[in-house]
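Please decode residue identities from the backbone states below.
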């Protein structure tokens, strides 16, 4: 059976926490087809209710009403925010407070990758529009390789289509909204977001300098930061270190190649540089200074 979801998807949206209001984003209407093996084609109408879509997806994927959905399965119906809540959260690695501070400062400030002009750059924290998945992946790798600490887990958040101003049910919405000085509008919106996460004395901490460059946030603080301007978090889940994007397995997935991650990450560096210029900042001074928060 082949199930067709009628979606309006921002280009590459399935692969990154991409905004729908960024000036360099082009959107493309498409039909997303999922081959579930045999049978006739089933088309979900654009006016289908969330319950109708959920029923179709569960039936075609043979997932019982009480069953857990994997990230790959849920990707076939990203309009069903409730499905993400079915994922069991994993336990992130335990750090001491000193290790948490060390890890955050390192991934925030460490410059390690050349851009096209030969400048050595840090993670693209100042381009919050997109690339969260590469930042989270490379941050985990840097911490494990350079600091000899356990690689952080990944925390994913997903927007809720029922939030104020959210798109219709047949779209991938961008109802996560965070305030930022690094966008001309003062905020960015995503349909999902991901960052590195660890445990300190029973509290979950998120390492995400794109939202707060001053220090780690608790899980609750991180989620709350994505509810600006009527934004709403529909679901969140902690996956293991190998989870990369919504198309990957939450637990036990394939290890992402660091070379591939670095190559993909490199595409965001010129966009971060251009963003500084658009904001009337000195790109060289801002992006090549010793610390992200240096005066």
């Amino acid at each position: 059976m082949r199930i067709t979801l009628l979606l309006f998807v921002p280009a590459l949206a399935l692969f990154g926490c991409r905004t729908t209001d960024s000036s360099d984003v082009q959107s493309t209407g498409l039909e997303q087809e999922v081959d579930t093996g045999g049978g006739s084609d089933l088309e979900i109408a654009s006016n289908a209710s969330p319950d109708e879509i959920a029923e179709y997806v569960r039936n075609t994927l043979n997932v019982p009403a009480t069953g857990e959905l994997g990230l790959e399965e849920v990707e076939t119906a990203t309009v069903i925010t409730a499905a993400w809540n079915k994922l069991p959260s994993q336990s992130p690695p335990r750090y001491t407070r000193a290790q948490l501070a060390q890890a955050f400062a390192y991934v925030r400030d460490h410059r390690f990758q050349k851009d096209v002009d030969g400048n050595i750059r840090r993670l693209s924290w100042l381009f919050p529009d997109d690339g969260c998945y590469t930042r989270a992946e490379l941050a985990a790798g840097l911490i494990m390789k350079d600091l000899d600490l356990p690689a952080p887990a990944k925390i994913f958040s997903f927007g809720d289509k029922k939030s104020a101003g959210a798109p219709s049910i047949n779209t991938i919405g961008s109802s996560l909204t965070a305030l930022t000085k690094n966008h001309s509008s003062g905020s960015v919106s995503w349909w999902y977001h991901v960052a590195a996460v660890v445990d300190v004395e029973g509290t979950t901490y998120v390492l995400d300098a794109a939202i707060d460059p001053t220090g780690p946030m608790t899980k609750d603080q991180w989620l709350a930061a994505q509810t600006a301007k009527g934004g709403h978090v529909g679901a969140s889940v902690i996956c293991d270190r190998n989870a990369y994007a919504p198309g990957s397995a939450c637990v036990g997935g394939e290890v992402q190649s660091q070379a591939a991650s670095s190559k993909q990450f490199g595409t965001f560096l010129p966009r971060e540089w251009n963003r500084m210029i658009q904001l009337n900042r000195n790109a060289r001074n801002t992006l090549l200074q010793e610390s992200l928060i240096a005066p």
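Observation: The first strand starts at residue 2 and ends at 10.
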